[in-house]
Amino acid sequence: MILSLHNLTLPIEDPVLKFLLVLIIILAAPLLLNKIKVPHLLGLIIAGAIIGPNGFNVLSRDSSIVVTGTTGLLYIMFLAGLEIDMGDFKKNKWKSLTFGIYTFLAPFVLGYLGGYYILHFSVLTSVLFASLFSSHTLIAYPLVSKMGIAKNLSVNITVGGTMITDILALLVLAVVVGMSQGDVGTAFWTKLSISVILFSLIVLIVFPIIGRWFFKKVDDKISQYIFVLVMIYLAALLAELAGVEAIIGAFFAGLALNRLIPHTSSLMNRVEFVGNAIFIPFFLISVGMLIDFKVFFKSWETLEVAAIMLIASIGGKYISAVATQKTFRLSKEEGKLIFGLSSASAAATLASVMVGYNIIISESETGEPVRLLNEHVLNGSILLILISCTISSFVSMASAQKIAESDNEDTVSGNNHEEESILLALNYEKTVERMVNLGILIKAHSNIQDLFALNIINEENNESSLKNAEKLLHTATDAAASADVKIKTLKRFDNDVINGVNNVIKEQKITDLIIGIEDEKGFSPSLVYNLYNGYLQNDDVNVLVYHAAQPLSTIKRYAVMIPENAHKEAGFFHSLVRVWNIARNSGATIIFYAPENILDILQNIVKKANIEAEFIIMNTWKDGEETAAQLKDDEALIIFMAKRGMKSYIPRMRLIPDLLNRSLSDKNYLLIFPYSEFDKNNSEKRAVGNHDDFMEIGNVIKKIFK
Asked: Whose C-alpha in 179, 423, 546, 693 is 20 to 30 A from the C-alpha of 308?
């Protein structure tokens, strides 16, 4: 169809022009509003109101807007579940439960009192009216996540509490609808309970099994992303079939795939990028299209209802946030952030209002339908959405900014950021992407420029060529770029590979060297020779030898073997940071096998820098070897090694390569050789062995050794 501007009518129907207009709004809103310190989320909502059917009627809120906007809503809830730190979530589950109860009850009580005693609604209508204010939508979550504080305790508590209060509010909706239709009885409760339990089991147990299988079998990045979308919508559909709202399904899908999509992976980068660029802005614009400013001037009763709704919702959320802050002794800014994140009413509130509005319970004497929730509540909910989203955006942005600044000050003042330069010694094409993924997983979050990829060119010995080097380094660059990480590529001509690598280590002040192992060759005699007589001669560099039989994201647990006296090595805590990063960024459980005195140190660190960890006393190194040889599917091995002459060296370590070739050729394993001497120019930072992803660990280590 050819568009004729002379015959252009409103609302615009041409799909090309419609999509172009929406994209211009999505592009312009952040650019314009960031300059005047207004959250762009609010700008998108206001833009939706202006161009929507209740504004200038430029665009209609048709099925295309609704479908894309619904995807954006599901995306917000999915990201909330996906980005939550499962270790912290389990640790703080009772805090989330407490906040969930607070944020459900406080607005509910205020809403019921206002509905029953001031607006004179019936008991059933008052209960549904009150439940509107208990739920909330995390519209400000993408803003907070972008500021880098998604793992803050207050955010973790709020996200967990959101799931609880939304489920409770939507269960109230289901019960009220059932009662209004007269079918609430034993059969109703039994059916609802069984369906919700089945839904939870399918999503939280079956989805991870399917996801792990899929990511093992399919390497195509586009297929992996489409698979994620399928899981989101499938979980949402299962939630609706179970009798709860689709947003709960999306959140559960995020929890189910949490461990399968590492936070630093290329897939996570794609998920966040597409959501924040397209789907979430579409949702905010679609919410704005619901706003009709004219209704507030038609009736004083609408304004009265809207005022009560605002007091119940905003007031209730403020009370619950303050109660949570006082209960768990959070800072004032963390309390404000909880209020900011939880004060926005949009998705669940609107869904409940529309359900209640569409239920006709009787007719008036004039034949007019008497609805469970009247049009004044419907119109009042529109004002509630606008004002609550405005408050949520401003409060969340202000408090998140202060928390982020405070975290940065702590990092600088505490000298907690460890200087690191990671070098990937590339040699085999099949190992390139695996090594890049490991490098991204273990690096500090703030390390955006000190990741290097190197290939030594030795055409005389036919070990590599310029063409081969360019191919390997190009593959490494692409793999890093897909995770939004910049990698510096290095080509070096040298007659000796080991000398070439060692010279680059000195030139670039490398702290960590990663060497990849081919599946077919395993620990070959030449690799063992080059390792012990070449790479390990660098006394101030961490050496990591990596074998990958399956994607990092599909590993459930890591068994970490630590020998006696390892904590006395200069590079032990530097190496320990790498293990911590693997746990924090992948969500995998770490099982430490070590002597009791080392386990005591690790348990003290876990108290401050939480990961999901288990601790098992390893009496002898041979016991650890036997445990390692019996790894199950989807488990991997990490061994702290040492070269001859170091305090933690054990003669049996010479047998490790043979053990790995014999018993673990189909498993992932990582050998870590901590450096034996401090870098004299950077001894204090290297000794602390710490970085900004868990700032307090350095202070913990210092206290342990005092």
From this structure: 179
Minimal CA–CA distance to 51: which of 7, 3, 5, 10? 10
Question: DSSP secondary-structure letter at 487?
Answer: -
Structure tokens at 650: 């054990």
Is residue 8 pLDDT above 80, yes or no? no
Query: What separation in angstroms does the CA of 602 have from each of 100, 557, 608, 611?
Result: 32, 17, 10, 11
The reported pLDDT for the residue numbered 680 is 41
> Of 132, 140, 152, which Cα lies nearest the Cα of 357?
132
Q: Which residue in 382, 300, 307 sits closest to 349, CA to CA?
A: 382
Q: Which helix (H) or strand (E) holds 439?
A: helix 429-442
Phi, psi of 32 (to 5 degrees): -80, -45
Q: Tens digit of pLDDT for each residue in 483-528?
A: 888 899 988 888 888 888 888 988 888 999 999 998 777 888 888 8
Rounded CA-CA distance 606/613 in Å is: 8
What is the pLDDT at residue 167?
79
Model confidence over 138-192: pLDDT tens digits? 878 877 877 878 778 888 898 888 878 887 887 888 788 777 766 667 777 788 8
8 A C-beta contact, residue 423 and residue 509: no
- Classify residue 418 by its DSSP letter: P
Asked if residue 692 has pLDDT above 60, the reply is: no
For residue 33 the two structure tokens come to: 């509003």
Beta pairing partners, 455: 491
Assigned token pair, 683: 């001894």
Residue found under tokens 């009150």 = 130
Our CA dihedral for 183, 188, 191, 193, rounded to 10 degrees, sits at 140
Contact between 112 and 130 under an 8 Å Cβ cutoff? The reply is yes
392, two tokens: 């949520």
* Amino acid present at 150: A
Residue 356 token pair: 């209640």
User: Residues 74, 233: contact at Cβ < 8 Å?
Assistant: yes
- Residues forming a β-bridge with 454: 425, 490
